[in-house]
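Technical note accompanying the year-one report. For the benefit of new consortium partners, we illustrate the data format agreed upon in the data management plan: each record pairs a sequence with a structure-token string. No post-processing was applied to the example shown here.
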Amino acid sequence: MPEINAPYAPGTPCWVDLMAKDQRAALDFYGQLFGWRGQPGPAEFGGYAVMEKNGRPVAGIGPAMAPEGQPEPPHVWTTYLATDDADATARLIGEAGGTVLFGPDDVGPLGRMAVAADPTGAVFGVWGHKEFFGAGLVNEPGTVVWNECNTRDVPAAAAFYKAAFGLTARPIDEEGGDGYLALYPASDSERPVGGLDDMAEHFPAEIPPHWMTTFAVADLDAVTATHAKAGGTVVLDPMPTPWGRLAGLQDPWGAVFCVMQPEG
């Protein structure tokens, strides 16, 4: 269902956010692109803005700030994987060969978060829910429709996400899938919650492993045109997929994301 009113199953991508080089400009840019509404939040949360669509939270945009002695975070979209216990998951990440980059830390009464990297180098977030479950609206125009880990070592990544989050990777059972791996949570072996793809087939050698966020749109051509007028760059021209037309976009500050006009 597009509206989410309960905790996500462990391992499910539940939230995405951007630590923006220019928060005000990013709020305006993505608001125009996806119809989001949101303003900088309270100082106690670093001014982090929760963006909404139809009154439901869909993504976060915060100002890029570095902890003392640390470099400024990159201007990238981060995918957060759900957990019922952020501290236990952080331990599993280390045991499975990943690296916890910071956290887990409390985010007020909302939840507990960490940022980590899998053994192949793809960075992701961990969200241990309390009062806030994550995105309250998905799979609708202007909201997240898919998240995937692009890696150069699929077996190592698959083993890691199985050990740390209970996710099982197997070829997606749809015509045209061509061996694409989907990630299935332990609680539901029939409904995939994300993807796992071999970068060697689609990416230049200089692009590091990463988690990619894809947003649904109602009109792909209109969105790419709006994006370009606002100073963005098309890095992957619109192309057909078994699930809809897809394009890769880069915002004016360098963050790459995908947009898809789903079939039907």
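Partners are asked to follow this layout when depositing records. The helical segments are 23-34, 86-95, 154-165, 220-229.
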